[in-house]
Specification:
By secondary structure, the protein is an all-alpha fold. The chain has 18 helices and four strands. Helix 4 runs antiparallel to helix 5 and helix 5 packs antiparallel against helix 13.
């Protein structure tokens, strides 16, 4: 009776199931197209925005096209380069991915608009001689080719998950276009040799400084019997060093548009911030540490706020400096088209700076999470103490390089610092007598075969579980596969961008 009153339509059920599967597949595909669609919308709006400023001008089409290409470059800078500033904080669980995107977008835009600088070298720090390129029209094509090639290369690097230097990409693009336009003699090879040297200097110095700070934190705080008392003694000093370093860094590299200052003036400002912050940090750390247990987890909570602040400051400084990678060639094109002449330095119009700032922030939000997760989580395991060392190392390395007049990559420095933290942990775990003595006092049984211990103390990070050698390598050590991919991308950035730029310039030359 029930079968006749409620007959089942098996064919209908199958058809409905198919419709559900198709709907789910369509939703999945559509979700993947949202970010590219919004990016294309931004490029279209940028073109319209540029057209309002160039309406009625001769050769306005060239400026509008260049503005769209500059916006595309800015999107890629946001997708790739900003990960180095907030990735370690996300990997250390000091902030969520959403919070990191919000902080980075706000401070990147603020840095670009407030302290982005109103004068930029149109030839990217003297890479080529603009007079050797030839006519103003040829120079415009060279800058166009440099923008397109560097943006495409950064896009490819983001797709494969490799953080690369956007500055080096622009340098390679300018060099390649210059060679295609005027031959190898147009390139300043002394400057190029300095840039090549920075491929090695940036990550090595960043890694060494980060490892030294981590060694100090492990020795002075983590492997002390009274961790809270040690943190109250030394953490204010570390926070003060961070404040002094960032204030000097931002004064020299980020606020020169707001007020000019010499190296000595920046040092005085840094020392003043160091002294004031040291006093305030004592009060902060003492208040935050009240009632905390004598555990590593308590130490991590004390490092979280300074780490979030450092990520915000790094983003501000990055926006102030690297926005020129997107809008520098664009500003050169605008000036050359308007004046029909080539100049070594030009003023960046506000509307051009707005395009760069907006593009970096939108690119970060739409495409940045992939690189943020890779930098923060996949190279090596980070916690707030290690990520703090990475951020502090990045700022100090840039200050040192600026003092010696060396071109340096913030991307190479930050990622090199992550490498340094990871490799130091490998060495320290296997060779530290202090660590061994501390664990023995805690009653930890040592395993001679791989140097890893097991314990009932859930606060000992590595000793929480009995793990195999393969699991230990997966969980704690630097991932060699990522090291090889990133280093390969670094080495090929300048030549790849140069070759691509030369080809694009020749194509543009033929079309023109």
């Amino acid at each position: 009776m029930s079968e006749t009153s409620n007959p089942r339509k098996q064919t209908l059920d199958k058809d409905l199931d198919k419709l559900v599967y198709v709907e789910e597949a369509t939703t999945t595909v559509a979700r993947g197209l949202v970010a590219p669609g919004l990016a294309l919308l931004f490029l279209a709006l940028t073109a319209i925005f540029a057209a309002t400023y160039t309406f009625g001008e001769p050769r306005a089409v060239i400026i509008v096209a260049a503005a769209a290409i500059g916006a595309y470059m800015a999107l890629n800078i946001g997708a790739n380069d900003v990960a180095n500033n907030v990735g370690p904080a996300v990997g250390a669980k000091a902030m969520t991915l959403g919070g990191a995107l919000l902080i980075a977008a706000v401070f990147e835009s603020a840095g670009a608009l407030i302290a982005g600088g109103d004068v930029v070298s149109t030839i990217s720090k003297g890479i080529i001689d603009p007079a050797a390129v030839g006519t103003p029209e040829a120079f415009v094509r060279a800058m166009m080719a440099a923008l397109i090639s560097s943006a495409l290369w950064i896009n490819l690097a983001t797709w494969i998950g490799a953080p690369v230097s956007t500055t080096h990409s622009v340098v390679g693009g300018v060099m390649g276009a210059g060679i295609a336009a005027a031959g190898f003699s147009s390139v300043d090879w002394a400057t190029m040799s300095q840039i090549a040297a920075s491929w090695v200097i940036s990550p090595v110095v960043g890694g060494v400084i980060a490892a030294l700070f981590l060694a100090f934190i492990k020795t002075a705080i983590i492997y002390q019997d009274d961790k809270i008392a040690a943190a109250r003694r030394w953490l204010p000093l570390l926070i003060a060093i961070m404040a002094g370093t960032f204030s000097a860094y931002l004064t020299l590299k980020g606020l020169k548009k707001v007020f000019p200052v010499t190296g000595g003036g920046a040092a005085i400002i840094g020392l003043a911030f160091f002294a004031v912050t040291w006093f305030l940090a004592h009060l902060f750390v003492h208040a935050q540490s009240e009632g905390l247990e004598n555990r590593n987890q308590s130490l991590r909570s004390l490092f979280k706020v300074p780490l979030v602040i450092s990520a915000a400051l790094l983003s501000f400084a990055h926006g102030a400096n690297d926005v020129a990678n997107a809008v520098g060639p664009l500003a050169a094109i605008v000036f050359t088209v308007h004046e029909s002449t080539v100049n070594t330095t030009v003023a960046i119009p506000l509307w051009v700076m707005v395009i760069g700032a907006a593009g970096i922030s939108i690119g970060l939000v739409l495409f940045g999470p992939k690189l943020i997760r890779m930098v923060g989580e996949q190279i090596t395991k980070l916690n707030p103490m290690r990520a703090f060392c990475v951020a502090l190392s990045a700022a100090i390395t840039v200050i040192i390089a600026s003092g010696f007049g060396l071109p340096i990559s913030s991307t190479h420095t930050a990622v090199g610092a992550i490498f340094g933290v990871g490799f130091f942990r490998e060495w320290y775990t296997a060779h530290s007598k202090r660590r061994r003595a501390y664990l023995e006092r805690k009653g930890v049984r040592l395993k001679a075969d791989n140097g890893i211990q097991s314990s009932d103390d859930d606060d000992l990070e590595v000793e929480q579980q009995k793990t195999s050698r393969e699991e230990v390598a997966r969980r704690k050590l630097v991932r060699r596969a990522h090291v090889r991919t990133i280093v390969a991308a670094w080495v090929t950035t300048v030549p790849a961008a140069a070759i691509l730029s030369a080809v694009i310039f020749l194509v543009l030359d033929l079309i023109a």
